[in-house]
Design brief:
Blueprint lengths: L1 H10 L5 E4 L5 H12 L7 E6 L2 H12 L4 E6 L2 H9 L4 E4 L1 H6 L4 H18 L6 E2 L7 H9 L12 H5 L2 H18 L1
Parallel strand pairs: 1-2, 2-3, 3-4, 4-5
Helix pairs in contact: 2-3, 4-6
Length: 184
């Protein structure tokens, strides 16, 4: 099940994993969160909650109890601001979906980043970080990095272009050849 998969990620070295609540009302979201949290040590699981009225109510109560929360489907600067004001661990805007809806997604995320940073400066406790998702290309990933967002969700298809750099492979081959020559 989901708990076994999340625990497997922790066993591989992840410091935190995230899981989404399934209910639409605040009480249901809190019950979902409590059930999700049970098998994990404090801080290992971040509860994902939609950035709705009910979600903000449930997330505020959870955050007040020390539970890390990610507000998902953040589409407005005001939602990012409220997430930071309520002490969320993360606020997750969806770059690709913002662009699909006709917004300048990068400009909107830049405004969210500035608002969250300003809110973090005015309150005590761990900072809220943006966690952009729906990143569809290496160019979008680079653009988000240039905005200094602290965390980004990327799909598996972007790992190869990120990790497999020809110049790095060439440098590694040269290093290994030089090391082998020293051994002779």
């Amino acid at each position: 099940g989901i708990v076994d998969r999340l625990k497997a990620f922790l066993d591989m070295g992840a410091r935190q994993v995230q899981a989404q609540v399934m209910s639409a009302d605040a009480d249901g979201m809190r019950r979902d969160a409590e059930a999700l949290l049970q098998p994990f040590a404090a801080g290992q699981l971040v509860v994902k909650i939609p950035a709705t009225r009910a979600g903000f109510a449930a997330g505020a109560a959870l955050a007040a109890d020390g539970v890390p929360v990610t507000y998902t489907a953040v589409y407005a600067v005001e939602q990012a601001h409220l997430a930071a004001q309520l002490g969320a661990a993360y606020a997750a805007p969806y770059l690709g979906r913002l662009q699909d809806a006709g917004h300048d997604g990068l400009a909107l995320i830049a405004r969210m980043q500035a608002r969250v940073a300003a809110q973090n400066a005015t309150r005590a406790g761990a900072p809220t970080r943006l966690l952009p998702a729906s990143v569809r290309s290496p160019e979008a990933l680079r653009a988000l990095l240039e905005l200094d967002v602290a965390a980004i969700t990327i799909p598996p298809k972007l790992f190869a272009p990120l990790m497999d750099q020809a110049a790095t492979a060439d440098a590694e081959a040269a290093f290994l050849a030089d090391a082998a020559a020293l051994g002779d």
